[in-house]
């Protein structure tokens, strides 16, 4: 299971705006392209473990600062889907 977590975390730490937007559309998460780019730019290189609730929560708070609370909630829904 640890390999799966590493792959998902690596993807989150290297995701592009286009990829994030594509995943949001795929999972019916309401994020526009500009928001996806802002979030992806923030995520790149952060090395956040989205499987750790505390780290994910801190990440969502930072996303809320840069893209707004509604976008942060939507991104959190997407991250939770990735962890299940």
Radius of gyration: 11 Å
What distance lies between the first and last C-alpha atoms, to the nearest angstrom?
Answer: 11 Å
Taken as a percent bin, the fraction of beta residues is: under 5%
Which stretches are low in confidence, meaning pLDDT under 50 for 5 or more residues running? none
Let me know the number of strands.
Answer: 0
* Tally of DSSP helical segments: 5
Query: How does the helix and strand content classify structurally?
Result: mainly alpha
Q: Into which percent range does the helicity of residues fall? A: over 70%
- Give the overall shape: globular
String of helices and strands: HHHHH
Largest sheet: none
Mean pLDDT: 89
Count of distinct structural domains: 1
Keywords summarizing the entry:
0% strand, 5 helices, globular, 84 residues, mainly alpha
Structure notes:
The protein has 84 residues and is an all-alpha fold. The protein has one domain (2-83). Helices cover 76% and strands 0% of the residues. It has helices at 2-14, 17-26, 33-43, 53-67, 69-83. Helix 2 (17-26) crosses helix 3 (33-43) and helix 4 (53-67) runs antiparallel to helix 5.
Please describe the topology of this protein:
Layout: H1 2-14, H2 17-26, H3 33-43, H4 53-67, H5 69-83
Helix pairs in contact: 2-3, 4-5
Can I get a quick summary?
The protein has 84 residues and is mainly α. It is built from 5 helices and no strands.
